Amino acid sequence: MNEIILKQLSTLIKEFFGDALEFALVFGSRARNEHRADSDVDLMLVFTDVYEKSKNEDFKQMFVSFQKERGLASDVKFRGEFLTLTDLHNAIAGHGFIKDKNRLDIDLVGPTEWSSFNEHRQWLCAMAGPNKFLSGDKNKFIEYQQNALYAVILSALLARKTVVFAITELLEELVTKGKNYLGFCDTQFSRNFLLTYLPKVCEHLKRKNLIKQSTTGYILDRTLALKQLPKTMSKRDYLLKKKFVGSVTTEEDLFSIQKALDIGLDFILDKDASVLNYKDELEIRSKFEDDIPKEGQSLEKITEEFCLKILDGSIRQSNPNYLAFPDAGNSVAALIADILVGFTNQNLIATTKSAPTATFAEIQVIRWLRQLVGFHDTQDFPKNAVAVGGIITMGGTLANATALLAARCKTLPESRVKGLQALDIKPVLIIAADTFYHYSHIASFWWLGLGEENIVYVNTLDDYRLDCDDLDRKLSEHNNGKTSRVIAVVSQAGDSRTTTIEDFNKVADITRKHNVWLHVDACHGGVLLFSKKHRERMNGIERANSISIDPHKGLCTPYPASAVLFKDIEDCSLISKSTDITIQKGSYDLGQVTPFLGSRAFDSLKLWFLIKHLGTDGISELIEYRYELAKSWHAQIERSEFFVTLNDVELNSVVFSISPKKLSKLLRGENLDREILGKLNKLLHDQVYREGKLCIHSFDIVDVADRIATGVGKLRVLGVTLGNPYTDAQAFPDHIKYLDSLVYQIASQDAS
């Protein structure tokens, strides 16, 4: 690189950075006068401690263009070293070196060993030379160049096993180990540089009493020498820090993270993998009976163990043939967000010191959900956390429990201060009949201390909706205000078996008549709020006092991603808390309104990413796709050899069973009661699960419409709840043919 180009570069730097620049230099092959066509310009800029770092990126782009315009090679990845005088001071004081007792442990640093810790070593070596001054304060440049060279040579001496050395011996070590050691290449230029400066450096070190002359050369005083490099890191500290992401993390260390990402992607993308590689629970348990390890292991070994013990045998909910639940968890946007949730590690308990920006992203997500529901007060941004009108929770169960806690505090306000022992009235919860409620409805009530025996069940109609006449009667009976009071009525937008959507206006008319809290469990059916075609079936949901929604069920987000919303934002105050230390009253600290939780991950980011990625239009298409899948499965079950459906498709679920009528031809007229039929369904489900080609669900349900003609009563049946956009209806004939073949096999064995 000729002097003209050097002057032009110097002018560019001066004009761009002005007084913020202390000095600039060129190092590397261009400084060594190696006129190679493939050599880029290695540039180092040293600034005052306070300068506008935001300008660096603009300069880097200009620097790349500068080189290209002059026919020079340019490295678009590494476009210069930018540091402050303090950074350089620390480098000269030994930051970037590892001390092992009374020696330095200097490894070769190539591209994969690079870290922000040993970057100081790069700066030190570049400053030590060979290099060329470009612009700035030349006297300061010379001062730092000398001090850097002293530090580099001292470091090299401290890395040697012996304290005795000769200049020629040290020179050979420096150039032989190469530029990845302490920056010196084995070139004639570098040798001449060291031949010129090593004697001067040794004289300086001798004056400082760091080395002494001997008959064969010099002797290093390790104790005094180490004191000249006070910023070195002990090997013990270094090895500890290596186990955590930070300044000593190298690209090689990051391979473990990249490998984990590759394992995850392969787990989802492996088209030849079955839904499950089934293993017996005793076999699985035997792999996890070892004691807690005393000594740590390499990440490579742990990852290998994970793959053998955990991954092999894990269920692939993202597999297109996984039909049991809709929780595919394969949204690209949500998976990206899930990675960022871990890396950013925001704590949604509070804004200050915990989640200053994430808090407002989460509030935005809740606002979006409230707008979709049709709640009236969503135009203005909430003034504080209590005014948000909802919270993000860890799963639908917690969302339901939180809603019922608010209902309890609203209906029985004295329970918050005086406790349940002060009540002279029986609290009652009204939910759907047996097999149609969700377990969390019952569990939440007794978790809240309200008693499982105080739950009243409403009859179910033939279409799996609540019998509203029975609801009205039971409200009249139990909400008398004298001996009992109804805390809440739980209605469902998609129960977990048939995903039937309730008639919310009808239910809301009755609960309003009796002045009772209405909670809608929309963990399955809440996705219809995004639908263009099916949104009207959710009409009336906005009349509910509270709604639980579970995006990890319907929107393919990884677990967990759930929310509870309140119609009246004032109801959030029913469950609010404040410590006046971490959680500030009247602030945006969301920890005020998250019962049962303190520290909480930024799980709402998954929904934020997904909604922004798909938009409501894209989500609507996803909902329609899975609805059509369910219709197709339903139709083909009806045409199957041995099965019959128990419900009409409302969202994405089909409940089905072996048909006694269809099976009778195989069993030569033998009657099948509910118990035998349930047993056959379970045997079928269990065999399908073990074989791992397909995954379907099995559960108890009351055949309220008596579609199977075994009488109204509880029956073990089969089901699918479809959610994966990669599930293909064209594969259904083969799936059902496979199920039919297993029925033939099981029934034949049973008959024999």
Automatic annotation (TrEMBL):
Domain annotation Polymerase beta nucleotidyltransferase: ranges: 19-59
Cofactor entry: pyridoxal 5'-phosphate
Keywords recorded for this protein, A-Z: Decarboxylase, Lyase, Pyridoxal phosphate
Highest taxon in the source lineage: Bacteria
PROSITE patterns reported for this sequence: DDC_GAD_HDC_YDC (PS00392)
Residues bearing the modification N6-(pyridoxal phosphate)lysine: K553
GO molecular function, one term: pyridoxal phosphate binding
GO biological process: amino acid metabolic process; carboxylic acid metabolic process
GO cellular component, as recorded: cytoplasm
Family: Belongs to the group II decarboxylase family.
Record's protein name: Pyridoxal-dependent decarboxylase
The species this protein was found in: Candidatus Roizmanbacteria bacterium GW2011_GWA2_37_7
